[in-house]
Write a structure and sequence with these properties.
The structure holds 2 protein chains of 2 kinds. Chain A folds into 3 domains: 92 residues, PRC-barrel domain (SH3 type barrels); 106 residues, MgtE N-terminal fold (Alpha Horseshoe); 110 residues, CBS-domain (Roll), CATH 3.10.580. Helices cover 38% and strands 22% of the residues of chain A. Chain A has 19 helices and 19 strands. In chain A, the strands form 5 sheets. A 6-stranded mixed β-sheet of chain A has the order 5-4-3-2-7-6. A 4-stranded antiparallel β-sheet of chain A has the order 1-10-11-12. In chain A, strands 9-8-13 form a 3-stranded antiparallel β-sheet, with no helix packed on it. In chain A, helix 7 crosses helix 9. By secondary structure, chain B is an all-alpha fold. In chain B, 80% of the residues lie in helices and 0% in strands. In chain B, helix 3 runs parallel beside helix 13, helix 6 runs antiparallel to helix 7 and helix 13 crosses helix 14. Classes of the chains: A alpha+beta, B mainly alpha. At the A-B interface, strand 9 and helix 8 of A face helix 5 and helix 6 of B.
Chain lengths: 428, 423
């Protein structure tokens, strides 16, 4: 058999038993669900009969030769036919052929016209998807005719040589629809997890909004959160606008509260209200509070996600706290120490207590707690303080000294960059 | 006063109205485009030749239209994909390709009919077709190339308002309203050949293949979500009711005048001209203006819808906001529809009649496939999830589709064997 073959050439091919008895014709190929770069074929599905159709699986080890006809090295008695059609978890015909995929290199959505398979060591691998015109014409079984015509009029035509193949490595299968959250096979999801979120966000940037949406829905909740964090604010708005209210609500619940607030600030009031209805009352209460502050004050900048412990906590409690919260979206290095009224008593950072005796009180490994900002302090003040003390985050207190939230330097940075840009643009 | 505003803004009813206004468009536009040059000709002839006796058929036609269009809208919202997409993904490339090939030629001949409609309607106002057709073609091109989906939709919705011209000409024609009402609610069926041909023609012109593709794609492009579906359904149903109402007034206007005077007509411009001595200049002008509006409206939608469906099905990039290099097939198809559609109207002695004949047959052959695929898709739980047809609706839908298919096939039979009568 040739090294490379097309799925369209295998489909419909006749299969015979060892004794030359007709077994059926190929109607689909099931692929292995593993995390290999190029998935391997598990079995062919064959079908026979016209009115009473019968289906059977042929595993690759019983195939003797793949030629114009496919010959098996077993006979009829070893084959089990079933009356129901076989629907594998990951099938070339159902999950790849004619479906839409994202071409990760060119960042566009294309439709698969054919599948390019590679035969090595009696194993069949999914190597490329064909998205070109030649693939389309091959599927229509017009290749001979069209090639003849083209050769007649334009023997140098690009069409004759150019195959538009995309390596399987660089493709991502889209879900069935943007309104459904199910992905057809887990394999694609696992593969995605290996691509850094920032890169995925870049890929998304070039897609139009619907393709963006379909791609986004194939991500796991965790990946969605990460990719979302890396997107530009206009893109986030667009996405939230096009997601269903429930999905958007779920998403906002999973991202840091300050980011969610920024986003909600820019949405119409009506939409904000709608989204809040799909969040836990705790989250929506928090967001509603944050929305109450002007965007460029400490209250508007802060997040309500921060780590805190009681005044009687020990150093080992702090270490445990950080260990328990590795996945925490907020700042991980600072822990605030509060009394029973949630008034700020001390600030400590990982650097301060990591080498301390675990059984000592945490209060002994503290900065003074007089570095803080008030809810209505301006952004400039926040920036100045952060710079002065070289802190990566700073607590926000209300007029009674109660801890309300924390601001991290990247939040301020983001606002400042936007501001600088605006000023720069105004000057031009 | 201020308090009143706040009260209105916060009321539940107002919220529903706003939500409806936000999703309104696809259903109303699709149904109205359906009253295009060919549709108006058919309705005019139905009125002129059979008086009010065919009015009753508009009620079952409305119901059938609602059932079919609602399914399309539901598929669009539940899957977020166009009909061509779904057919490609579930029935393969071969079926899709031949379907799209037929759709292209059928829609192309429809586009020719629309440009011919523009030409003849403006000739009534003494504007030469050598001026009106190129300008219209240019307008259609610019409208879509320079516009965005939102702006184009607004223009289309605005164009829907002008259909009121037919309602007014219906009133100017001074019909005997009690007779009209009686005939509308009492089916009268006579088995003469001409009557049957006309009845089948009415169904054929109202439920066309391109509508299903266009409606579904425009809902997807608009990005209507599942939460908004309730309001979208109102839009779709409203469209399916408004369009036959316009048809009703066209039939009435022609029946009250030409049928009573015993004048036979062959086309929509015959109808406009015949109205002049019978109902006065204004009725004639309104009728011609309505024809112009309908033709240019459909001439804007058809090429776009065709290019979209074909690119969708065959996996090519599509979209008016793309550059030519990004979506060459899309722009070629779009340009071909406009240039050929408008160009042939300017050719002397172009056999438009033969083209229409072909288009009727093509439509008739295509429609059964599309409707059956639609029904199979909408009952597929893998695709539709909880949005599959309910059992009751399914029975109604299959019966409706069966009747439409039967009538369509009868029409194809008429067109092939009695070409003189079926048009």
């Amino acid at each position: 058999m040739k090294l490379f073959t097309y799925l369209s050439e295998l489909l419909g091919r006749k299969v015979y038993f060892e004794n030359k008895q007709y077994a059926g014709k190929v109607c689909d190929i099931s692929m292995r669900l593993n995390e290999a770069v190029f998935p391997m074929a598990e079995y062919f599905i064959i079908q026979k009969g016209v009115f009473k159709k019968q289906y059977a699986k042929i595993y690759l080890n019983v195939i003797k030769r793949v030629g114009y006809r496919i010959k098996l090295n077993i006979d009829r008695s070893k084959m089990e036919y079933s009356k129901d059609s076989i629907r594998p978890e990951f099938s070339l015909c159902f999950d790849i052929l004619d479906q839409q995929v994202v071409d990760m290199n060119d960042q566009k959505v294309v439709r698969v016209n054919d599948v390019h398979l590679m035969m090595v060591d009696r194993q069949l691998y999914l190597a490329h998807v064909d998205v070109g015109l030649r693939g389309l014409i091959r599927r229509l079984e017009w290749t001979g005719f069209v090639d003849f015509i083209v050769k007649l009029f334009a023997p140098e035509a690009k069409y004759l040589k150019q195959e538009e193949l995309i390596s399987w490595k660089n493709t991502h299968v889209l879900t069935l629809g943007r309104t459904k959250n199910v992905i057809r096979s887990d394999i694609v999801r696992n593969r995605l997890a290996k691509i850094p979120a920032a890169e995925l966000a870049d890929i998304m940037e070039d897609l139009d909004v619907f393709d963006k949406l379909s791609l986004f829905k194939t991500f796991s909740v965790d990946l969605q959160r990460k990719v979302f964090a890396d997107m530009a604010i206009q893109e986030k708005e667009e996405l939230v606008d096009h997601l269903g209210d429930r999905e958007a609500g779920d998403l906002l619940e999973n991202i840091p509260a300050d980011e969610a607030t920024d986003l909600l600030h820019n949405l119409p009031k009506e939409k904000t209200k709608q989204l809040m209805r799909f969040m836990h009352s705790k989250t929506s209460k928090k967001l509603r509070m944050l929305l109450g502050y002007a965007q460029d004050t400490a209250g508007g900048l802060m997040t309500t996600e921060y780590l805190y412990l009681g005044a009687d906590a020990l150093v080992k409690d702090a270490i445990q706290k950080i260990k328990d919260n590795v996945d925490y979206p907020g700042n991980l290095f600072h822990i605030y120490i509060v009394d029973e009224k949630h008034a700020l008593k001390g600030i400590t950072s990982l650097r301060h207590f990591i080498n301390k005796d675990p059984s000592r009180p945490l209060m002994e490994a503290c900065y003074p707690s007089d570095v803080f900002v008030r809810l209505d302090d301006g952004m400039e003040e926040v920036a100045l303080l952060l710079e002065k003390y070289k802190f990566s985050s700073i607590p926000v207190l209300d007029e009674y000294g109660i801890l309300q939230g924390a601001i991290t330097s990247d939040d301020v940075m983001e606002e400042l960059i936007t501001l600088t840009w605006k000023k720069y643009k105004d000057q031009i | 006063m201020n308090q009143l505003f706040v009260k209105i803004r916060n009321s539940k009813a107002a919220r529903h109205v706003f939500l409806f206004l936000a999703v309104m468009g696809p259903g109303i536009i699709t149904a109205n485009v359906d009253n295009d040059a060919g549709g108006i000709a058919t309705y005019s002839m139905a009125g002129a030749h059979f008086g009010y006796t065919l009015l009753w058929s508009l009620i079952p036609i409305t119901i059938a239209l609602i059932i079919v269009q609602e399914m399309c809208a539901r598929m669009a919202v539940a899957t977020g994909k166009g009909l061509a997409d779904l057919i490609r993904e579930n029935y393969g490339v071969k079926v899709t390709f031949y379907m799209m090939l037929t759709l292209f030629f059928v829609n192309l001949s429809n586009a020719m009919a629309e440009f011919a409609g523009i030409a003849v309607s403006l000739e009534i106002f003494h504007i030469s077709k050598f001026i009106s057709v190129p300008i219209s073609a240019f307008f259609v091109w610019m409208l879509v190339v320079k516009g965005t989906y939102k702006s184009v939709e607004k223009i289309f919705l605005f164009a829907c308002l002008f259909y009121v011209a037919y309602v007014i000409s219906g009133f100017i024609a001074k019909p005997d309203w009690s007779d009209v009402l009686k005939q509308t609610v009492t089916p009268s069926f006579n088995w003469t050949l001409d009557y049957t041909v006309m009845l089948v023609g009415l169904v054929g012109t109202t439920i066309a293949p391109w509508m299903q593709f266009y409606l579904q794609s425009s809902i997807v492009e608009k990005g209507v979500t599942i939460e908004e579906y309730r309001h979208l359904r109102i839009d779709v149903v409203a469209g399916c009711i408004i369009a036959p109402i316009i048809a009703f007034f066209i039939v009435v206007a022609c029946a009250a005048t030409m049928f009573h005077a015993g004048i036979t007509i062959e086309s929509a411009q015959d109808a406009a001209l015949a109205l002049k001595p019978l109902a006065g200049n204004y009725a004639s002008w309104l009728f011609a203006f309505g024809l112009f509006n309908a033709s240019i409206f459909a001439a804007s939608v058809l090429p776009l819808s065709t290019a979209y469906s074909i690119c969708e099905g065959l996996g090519w990039d599509a979209g008016v906001d793309k550059r030519f290099e990004e979506a060459p097939q899309f722009f070629w198809l779009y340009a071909a529809m406009i240039i050929i559609g408008a160009g042939v109207v300017l050719l002397p002695n172009f056999p438009l009649f033969k083209v229409m004949y072909f288009s009727q047959v093509g439509n008739g052959v295509l429609l059964p496939f599309i409707l059956i695929y639609m029904l199979r898709l909408i009952n597929n739980k893998d695709i539709m999830g909880e949005f599959v047809n309910s059992k009751g609706l399914n029975i109604i839908a299959w019966v409706t589709v069966f009747i439409i298919i039967t009538l369509t096939l009868i029409m194809v039979g008429f067109t092939v064997f009695l070409p003189g009568k079926a048009l």
